[in-house]
């Protein structure tokens, strides 16, 4: 593929065509995705491929940026990293990822609390309706002179006499 590209670029008519396309900003093509980019670019705008190797200290800081959004926010805040696009990229990505994760977690907690509240509300309504029903039945039975025993409460009432 590389050799093919090379011979292609060497043909005069194609070189003229390329020159007209790239006349606004002369560039190089990305070895990863072949997107044309400025010759002095640190990253390919198409695929994010790093042109210059990233120092290990920068890579370590970029990796540390993922220790929650706090680390990412601290790195974004520190003036030392204001020009470090690689570090800042990962710091921003960490802040966004952790931000979305936090929002989803809080939403899930709120929803589960809401669900629990709904269950209690429904159980409360059912218990109230059951109590109303029993109250009416027992009042009517007593009024009619019937001995109507409830399963548990009846035997207790019997014993206490
Ligand atoms: Zn690329």
What do these coordinates show?
With about 160 residues, the chain is mainly alpha-helical. It has two domains: about 1-50, no CATH class; about 55-160, no CATH class. It contains six helices and two strands; from the N terminus they run ααββαααα. A two-stranded antiparallel sheet has the order 1-2. A hairpin with a 6-residue loop joins β1 (about 25-30) and β2 (about 35-40). α3 (about 55-65) packs parallel to α5. The radius of gyration is 37 Å and the shape is rod-shaped. The chain starts with a helix and ends with a helix. The structure holds zinc ion.
Order of helices and strands: HHEEHHHH
* Domain module tally: 2
Derived from helix and strand composition plus strand pairing, the structural class reads mainly alpha
Return residue spans where pLDDT drops below 50 for at least 5 consecutive residues: 1-24
Count of β-strands? 2
User: Which value, in Å, is the CA radius of gyration?
Assistant: 37 Å
Helical proportion? 55-70%
> What topology, given as strand order, has the largest sheet?
1-2
**Alpha plus pi helix count:** 6
**Could you give the distance between the termini?**
100 Å
- Percentage of residues in strands: under 5%
Instruction: Enumerate the distinct ligands.
Output: zinc ion
User: Mean pLDDT, nearest integer?
Assistant: 81
Main β-sheet description: 2 strands, antiparallel
């Amino acid at each position: 593929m590389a050799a093919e590209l090379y011979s292609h670029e060497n043909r005069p008519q194609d070189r003229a065509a390329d020159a007209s396309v790239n006349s606004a900003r002369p560039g190089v093509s990305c070895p990863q995705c072949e997107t044309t980019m400025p010759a002095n670019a640190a990253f390919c705008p198409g695929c994010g491929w790093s042109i210059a190797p990233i120092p290990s200290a920068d890579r370590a800081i970029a990796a540390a940026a993922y220790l929650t959004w706090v680390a990412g926010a601290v790195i974004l805040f520190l003036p030392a990293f204001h020009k470090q696009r690689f570090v800042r990229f990962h710091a921003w990505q960490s802040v966004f990822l952790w931000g979305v994760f936090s929002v989803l977690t809080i939403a899930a907690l709120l929803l589960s609390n809401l669900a629990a509240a709904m269950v209690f509300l429904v159980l409360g309504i059912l218990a109230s309706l059951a109590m109303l029903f029993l109250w009416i039945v027992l009042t009517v039975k007593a009024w009619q002179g019937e001995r109507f025993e409830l399963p548990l409460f009846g035997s207790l009432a019997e014993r206490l006499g």
